[in-house]
Amino acid sequence: MDREKRDHYILNLTIYDFGRPQKAAWRLLTVHIVDTNDNAPQFLQEGYRIVIPENTAIGTVIIQVEATDKDLGVNGEVVYSLLTSTTLFGINSTNGIVYVTGQLDRELVPFYNLKIKARDNADIGRHKFSVTSLKVILEDVNDCPPLFIPSVYKARALEDIPLGTVVAWIETQDPDLGFGGQVRYSLVNDHSGWFELDRNSGAIRLTKELDYEIQQFYNLTVKAKDKGKPVSLLSVTFVELEVIDVNENLYAPYFSHFALTGIVEENAPTGTTLLQVSAQDEDVGRDGEIHYSIRDGSGLGRFAIDEETGV
Ligand SMILES: [Ca+2]
Ligand SMILES: [Ca+2]
Ligand SMILES: [Ca+2]
Ligand SMILES: [Ca+2]
Question: Are the C-beta atoms of residues 131 and 116 closer than 8 Å to each other?
């Protein structure tokens, strides 16, 4: 018997005697098939898939799933529930409507695989169920402004660096997809054209010569803006540039002796060391480095001096 195929039968019962002429009587017998819970609820689709924006508001209905159960009465009543433990989605147990219950964020989790159970309302121990999956894919929304790394920049530059030198390099992170994650830079103040900022790479270059004696600090304001549409987001940071004093070349090098005398034997081979001269320079760094050369005199071409050591 299967009530779901046929729920009643009508039997015609006839009785005869063996007399002549034969007599008969008949009666109809209706047999009703009582339902038992032998069907599980079946989802109309094997799996469900939905794409929603990541900023979908709490309470928004995203989909309705449906399962049917061929049994009768409570045996055929369907109750829905979420098997996946989540605080972000909920389901209406009677109509299968799935809705948002928490703040979604594609940058945190880009999609969810939810398991949904449909069971019938038969007595506990006898009820039947089935399970389907719902894939929720979050669509990106431009909701992250560019983030500066680090949040504030400190840079130092020697006052004599050449024009075009990169004095600072601005970097940001923007995890949004596509245009929403593409960042362009600009200078809010450029100190009358002292600096220029490459809008794509974030490199800040010097465009006018620095002079420690005139200005020791520059405070640049940099704007980073993504190309998101229709909403574009921006952030602002500061670059503190300190100019480092460079000692100008103040002193000339000098020899400790006005004249030196060297003695060499007339048959000395080429390459023989004659003497070593030594000069001083009071400047520090590059300005105080000394190089030697022979400039004039009667021995030109016959003697050579080591540029570095003075030998
Ligand atoms: Ca049944
Ligand atoms: Ca059932
Ligand atoms: Ca963005
Ligand atoms: Ca986003």
Answer: yes
CB 115 within 8 A of CB 82: yes
| CATH number belonging to the domain at 42-139, selected among 3.50.50.60, 2.60.40.200, 2.60.40.60, 3.30.230.80 | 2.60.40.60
Q: Which ligand is nearest to the CA of 104?
A: 4
CB-proximal residues (5 Å) to ion ligand 3: 142, 144, 174, 176, 180, 226
Q: Cα of 72 to ligand 1 centre, how many Å? A: 7
Indicate the fold that domain 249-311 takes in CATH.
Immunoglobulin-like (2.60.40)
**Nearest ligand to the C-alpha of residue 182?**
3
**What are phi and psi for residue 97, nearest 5 degrees?**
-75, 125
CB 239 within 8 A of CB 155: yes
Distance 220 CA to ligand 3 centre (A): 23
Cα 140 to averaged position of ligand 4 atoms, centre (Å): 5
Ligand 3 center–CA 255 separation, angstroms: 66
Name the amino acid, one letter, at 89: F
Ligand that lies nearest to the alpha carbon of residue 4, given by its number in the listed order = 1
Question: From ligand 3's centre to the CA of 143, what distance in Å?
Answer: 6
CA pair distance 309, 291, nearest whole angstrom: 8
Each residue's pLDDT tens digit in the chain (311 positions)? Answer: 999 999 999 999 999 999 999 999 999 999 999 999 999 999 999 999 999 999 999 999 999 999 999 999 999 999 999 999 999 999 999 999 999 999 999 999 999 999 999 999 998 788 999 999 999 999 999 999 999 998 889 999 998 899 999 999 999 999 999 999 999 999 998 777 899 999 999 999 999 999 888 899 999 999 999 999 889 999 999 999 999 988 677 788 999 888 888 888 999 999 999 999 999 988 777 778 899 998 888 878 889 999 999 99
Q: Output the CA 24–ligand 3 centroid distance in Å.
A: 92
**How far apart are alpha carbons 168 and 155 in whole angstroms?**
6
Fold of 147-244: Immunoglobulin-like (2.60.40)
